C-alpha cells in the first residue's frame, strides 16, 4: 500500500541532469545539515534541501511529496592524526591552517510527505526511477561544493615564462654549499642567487627594518636578469625552493632549477634548508605580534555560547565576510529587519522558487543562524563512536557556514565570488548597496539607512563667494596624519636604534619596534580641515584659481563607520599597510563636524550662463598632438577629440583612442556640443531612449549614476533615492536644505560598539577578526571561535563601528 503511494507520486520525482544544481549539504532556509539531529531532506523534484523543521513548509508551498533523507554520524578521530604545518597565509584551504575536520558515515532513506512514510535505501523494491534519481543525486557534486571548488588559485605558483629560456653567464663563479655573504654588503641572511650571472645579493628591506639592503632588486634594475633563488631554501625537494621572478613580480616555479643550480656548481641534494621562503617569512611575521595581539593568542579566552554568539566557519579566506557580518548583525537596524520583524517562514513564503538565490531569504537565514542561539552550542566530540556515553563536550563551537549567503551576495561582484582574500571595506560597501537595492520599494524598512549620511563640501574662491557640493555616503574614510603622532620622542629614539643596528649588520627584533600613535581626534580633524583645491574654475572671476575646501556632515547616522586609511599605494600600484596605532575613545562627539550650510552674509558663486560651463570645464586640445595626428591623415576634428579624451597624455595615447572610437555615432559632432554630454556613453543613452525616456533625461541620469544603466533607471523613477550611492555628488551652487529629512539624524555623541581588525601586509592576504561590545562586555569573533575579549585591540582596527547615543 505504501509502495503504491510512492508509485503514485513518481511524476514528482526527477532524475537530475548534469546542469541541475543539487543541494545536499545544507538546508536552504536554515543551517541544518545532514549532521543535524533530524538530518537533511532533499526535494527529489527541485533538488533543494530542507531541515527537519522546515521540509513541511516546502511541501505546503510546492506540493512536492518525495524526499531523499540524508543523515550523517561522526567517525572517531585517530589519536595519532598528525597536525599539518601551514604554508599559506590563509584559513580553510589546502596549505592553510588545518581545521581538523572530522569524517562522517552517511545513511539514506526515501521519505514521503505529509505522513513521513519512510522507505529504506538502497532497496531493489523501490521504483527504478527513484533508484536512478537517488544515485544521480548522490554521485553529483553538490551545488554548495561547486561554489567552493571554483576558484582557489591566488597562491598557486605558476611556471615562469623566463625559466625555460634563461641564458646563464659563466663568470667563473662556483657557489660554496654554505658561508654565503652579500657581494655588496655584510649581510649573511636573506640572500638571493641571481640565476643568470651567479651574483649573491641581499633581499629587500622589510617594513620593520629587517630583511636586506635591496641589493638584489637593484642588481635586477641594472642588468634585467630575471630570476633569483633564495639561498637556504634549496634542498633535495626543489618544489619548496623560493624562486622569484622580478619582471613578473612574484614567486614562481622553475622546472629547470636543478640545471640552473648545477651551472654554478651547486649540488642541491646535499643542501640543508636554513632560510624561510618569502611566503613562510610573511606567514611567520604575521603570526607573531599583530596576529597574537588581535586574536588575543596566548590568553585564556572564556568561550561564549547562546543567542548573538554564533561563530561563522571560514569557507576559505572568507574571514572578511565573517568579521563584517558579525558587527552588522549586532546593530538594532539589521536585527529588527531580518530577525525580530521577519520570521523564516515569512521570508520563505515570499521567496522565489529557488530561495538560495534570494538575498532577503539568505539574510533572514543568516540572521536566525547568528542570533537565535540554535547553532551556538559547544561541539560534541565523540571519542568512542560505539559508546555515546563517552562523548565529551568541547569549549569550541562548530559555527555555521554562510555558503549560500556568500554565493548570493557575490553574484553581482566577481571578486567576492572567488576564494581569495578581500578588503572588508569594499565588502561592507557592496553589501550595503545590495541591501539598499532589495529594499528600494520600502525605504522605511531599509536597515542600510541606519549607516547613511550626507556630506557637504564648501568651496570658497578668492572673490569671497562660495559654492556647496552635496553627496551621500555610508563610511567616513579618514586619513591618518602621522605628523600628529603623540610619541615622537620614542619614534626618534627608535630610528636612532635602527640606524645603529643596521650599521652593525644586526636586525631589529619585533619587541623593539616603536609604532606611531595617532589620536582618533586628529584623524577626524583631518577630514574637516580646510584644504586647497587647485584649478577650481570660479564663475565670479571667470578664471581658474585656487579655492579653499572644507567638509562637514549634513546628518549624523544611527551607526557611524570610520575607515582608517591604513593601506596606501606604492610604486606599481602595490598596496602597502601603514604600521600605526590609533588611540580611540569609547565615546566620541562629532557635533563640531556638522555642516552649517549657507550662512548669513555669504554670497553664492553665480550660476554659469548657458554654454559657459562647458567652455570652462572642458579640456583644450594640445595643438602639437593634434598636428602630429593630422599629419598622419586623420580628420582634424577627430584628432582634437582624441587629444581631449586622453587629457593630452601624448600622441600614442591619442592615436589608440582614435583607432578605437572611429565608429562612434557622435565622432563628427562639434566639440562644444559634445561637451554638454561629457563622460556619457552614447550607446547607453540610446538604450535608455529605447526604453521611452527623453534623451536629455537619459543623459542626466547616466551622468548622475556614473554610467550605470540600472542605476540610471532607478534615478529617473526616484532621483532622491537613486542618487544615494556612496560616491554620487550633487554639485550645486544653490544653498538648498542642509539636512536630508529622509536620512536618520540626531546628536553627535557616539559609543564604540565594534571593531574589524586586519592582520597582514595588504588587503590581498592575511586575516580579519571582529570584536563586538554587547551585554556589557567585549566579545571576540574569530571565525567560528567566539569568546570574552580581555584586551580588544582598539588601537589596531581597520574599521570602527560607533552607535549614536540616544537622547
Written description of the protein model:
The radius of gyration is 31 Å and the shape is globular. 28% of the residues lie in helices and 20% in strands. With 807 residues, the protein is of the alpha+beta class. The longest helix is centred in the middle third of the chain and has 16 residues, at 488-503. The strands form 7 sheets. Strands 15, 19, 23, 25, 26, 27, 28 and 29 form an 8-stranded mixed β-sheet that branches. A 5-stranded antiparallel β-sheet has the order 2-1-3-4-5. Helix 10 (332-340) crosses helix 12 (359-371), helix 18 (623-631) packs across helix 19 (636-645) and helix 22 (682-690) crosses helix 23 (695-704).
Whole-number radius of gyration? 31 Å
Overall geometric form: globular
Structural class: alpha+beta
Q: How large a portion of the residues is in β-strands, by DSSP E? A: 15-25%
What are the segments in which pLDDT stays under 50 over at least 5 consecutive residues?
Answer: 148-155, 285-289, 381-393, 610-617, 673-678, 719-739
Question: What is the share of helical residues?
Answer: 25-40%
Overall residue-averaged pLDDT value: 81
The number of strands is: 29
Number of helices: 25
- The end-to-end span amounts to 68 Å
Biggest β-sheet description = 8 strands, mixed
Amino acid at each position: 500500500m505504501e509502495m503504491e503511494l510512492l508509485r503514485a507520486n513518481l511524476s514528482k520525482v526527477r532524475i537530475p541532469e548534469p546542469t541541475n544544481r543539487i543541494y545536499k549539504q545544507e538546508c536552504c532556509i536554515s543551517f541544518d545539515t545532514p549532521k543535524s539531529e533530524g538530518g537533511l531532506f532533499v526535494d527529489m523534484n527541485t533538488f533543494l534541501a530542507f531541515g527537519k523543521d522546515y521540509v513541511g513548509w516546502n511541501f505546503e508551498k510546492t506540493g512536492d511529496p518525495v524526499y531523499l533523507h540524508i543523515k550523517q554520524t561522526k567517525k572517531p578521530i585517530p589519536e595519532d592524526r598528525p597536525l599539518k604545518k601551514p604554508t599559506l597565509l590563509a584559513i580553510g584551504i589546502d596549505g592553510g591552517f588545518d581545521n581538523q575536520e572530522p569524517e562522517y558515515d552517511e545513511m539514506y532513506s526515501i521519505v514521503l510527505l505529509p505522513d513521513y512514510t519512510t522507505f529504506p535505501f538502497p532497496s531493489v523494491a523501490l521504483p527504478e526511477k527513484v533508484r536512478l534519481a537517488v544515485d544521480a543525486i548522490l554521485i553529483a557534486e553538490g551545488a554548495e561544493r561547486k561554489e567552493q571548488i571554483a576558484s582557489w588559485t591566488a597562491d598557486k605558483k605558476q611556471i615562469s615564462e623566463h625559466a625555460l629560456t634563461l641564458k646563464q653567464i659563466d663568470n667563473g663563479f662556483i657557489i660554496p654549499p654554505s658561508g654565503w655573504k652579500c657581494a655588496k654588503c655584510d649581510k649573511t641572511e636573506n640572500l638571493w642567487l641571481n640565476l643568470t650571472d651567479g651574483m649573491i645579493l641581499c633581499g629587500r628591506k622589510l617594513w620593520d627594518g629587517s630583511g636586506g639592503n635591496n641589493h638584489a632588486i637593484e642588481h635586477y634594475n641594472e642588468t634585467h636578469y630575471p630570476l633569483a633563488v633564495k639561498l637556504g631554501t634549496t634542498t633535495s625537494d626543489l618544489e619548496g625552493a623560493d624562486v622569484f621572478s622580478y619582471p613578473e613580480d612574484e614567486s614562481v616555479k622553475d622546472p629547470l632549477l636543478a640545471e640552473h643550480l648545477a651551472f654554478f656548481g651547486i649540488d642541491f641534494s646535499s643542501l640543508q634548508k636554513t632560510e624561510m621562503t618569502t611566503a613562510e617569512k610573511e606567514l611567520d611575521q604575521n603570526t607573531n605580534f599583530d596576529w597574537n595581539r588581535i586574536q588575543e593568542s596566548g590568553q585564556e579566552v572564556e568561550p561564549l555560547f547562546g543567542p548573538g554568539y554564533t561563530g561563522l566557519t571560514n569557507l576559505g579566506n572568507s574571514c572578511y565576510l565573517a568579521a563584517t557580518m558579525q558587527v552588522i548583525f549586532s546593530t538594532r537596524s539589521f536585527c529588527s529587519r531580518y530577525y525580530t520583524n521577519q520570521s523564516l517562514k515569512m521570508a520563505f513564503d515570499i521567496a522565489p522558487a529557488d530561495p538560495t538565490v534570494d538575498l532577503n531569504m539568505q539574510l533572514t537565514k543568516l540572521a536566525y543562524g547568528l542570533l537565535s542561539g540554535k547553532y551556538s552550542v559547544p561541539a560534541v566530540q565523540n571519542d568512542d563512536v560505539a559508546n555515546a556515553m563517552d562523548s565529551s563536550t568541547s569549549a569550541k563551537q562548530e559555527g555555521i557556514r554562510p555558503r549560500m549567503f556568500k554565493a548570493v551576495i557575490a553574484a553581482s561582484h566577481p571578486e567576492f565570488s572567488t576564494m581569495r582574500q578581500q578588503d572588508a571595506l569594499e565588502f561592507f560597501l557592496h553589501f550595503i548597496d545590495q541591501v539598499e537595492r532589495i529594499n528600494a520599494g520600502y525605504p522605511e524598512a531599509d536597515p542600510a539607512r541606519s549607516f547613511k549620511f550626507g556630506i557637504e563640501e564648501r568651496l570658497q574662491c578668492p572673490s569671497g563667494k562660495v559654492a556647496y557640493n552635496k553627496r551621500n555616503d555610508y563610511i567616513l574614510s579618514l586619513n591618518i596624519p602621522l605628523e600628529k603622532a603623540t610619541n615622537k620622542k620614542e619614534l626618534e629614539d627608535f630610528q636612532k636604534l635602527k640606524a645603529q643596528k643596521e650599521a652593525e649588520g644586526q636586525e631589529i627584533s619585533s619587541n623593539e619596534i616603536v609604532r606611531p600613535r595617532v589620536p582618533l581626534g586628529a584623524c577626524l580633524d583631518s577630514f574637516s580641515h580646510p584644504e586647497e583645491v587647485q584649478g577650481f574654475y570660479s564663475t565670479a572671476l571667470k578664471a581658474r584659481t585656487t579655492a579653499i575646501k572644507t567638509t562637514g556632515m549634513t546628518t549624523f547616522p544611527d551607526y557611524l563607520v570610520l575607515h582608517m586609511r591604513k593601506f596606501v599605494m606604492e610604486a606599481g600600484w602595490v598596496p602597502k599597510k601603514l604600521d600605526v596605532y590609533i588611540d580611540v575613545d569609547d565615546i566620541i562627539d562629532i557635533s563640531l563636524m556638522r555642516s552649517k550650510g549657507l550662512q548669513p552674509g555669504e554670497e553664492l558663486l553665480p550660476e554659469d550662463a548657458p554654454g559657459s560651463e562647458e567652455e570652462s570645464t572642458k579640456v583644450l586640445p594640445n595643438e602639437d598632438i593634434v598636428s602630429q595626428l593630422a599629419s598622419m591623415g586623420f580628420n582634424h576634428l577627430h584628432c582634437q577629440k582624441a587629444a581631449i579624451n586622453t587629457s593630452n597624455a601624448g600622441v600614442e595615447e591619442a592615436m589608440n583612442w582614435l583607432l578605437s572610437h572611429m565608429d562612434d555615432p557622435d565622432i563628427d559632432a562639434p566639440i562644444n556640443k559634445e561637451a554638454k554630454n561629457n563622460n556619457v556613453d552614447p550607446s547607453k543613452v540610446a538604450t535608455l531612449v529605447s526604453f521611452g525616456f527623453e534623451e536629455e533625461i537619459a543623459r542626466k541620469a547616466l551622468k548622475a549614476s556614473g554610467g550605470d544603466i540600472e542605476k540610471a533607471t532607478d534615478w529617473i523613477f526616484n532621483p532622491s533615492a537613486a542618487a544615494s550611492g556612496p560616491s554620487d555628488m550633487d554639485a550645486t551652487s544653490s544653498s538648498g536644505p542642509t539636512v536630508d529629512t529622509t536620512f536618520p539624524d540626531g546628536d553627535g555623541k557616539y559609543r564604540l560598539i565594534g571593531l574589524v581588525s586586519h592582520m597582514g601586509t595588504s588587503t590581498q592576504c592575511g586575516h580579519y577578526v571582529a570584536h563586538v561590545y554587547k551585554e556589557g562586555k567585549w566579545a571576540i569573533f574569530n571565525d567560528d571561535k567566539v569568546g570574552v575579549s580581555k584586551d580588544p585591540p582598539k588601537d589596531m582596527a581597520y574599521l570602527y563601528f560607533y552607535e549614536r547615543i540616544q537622547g
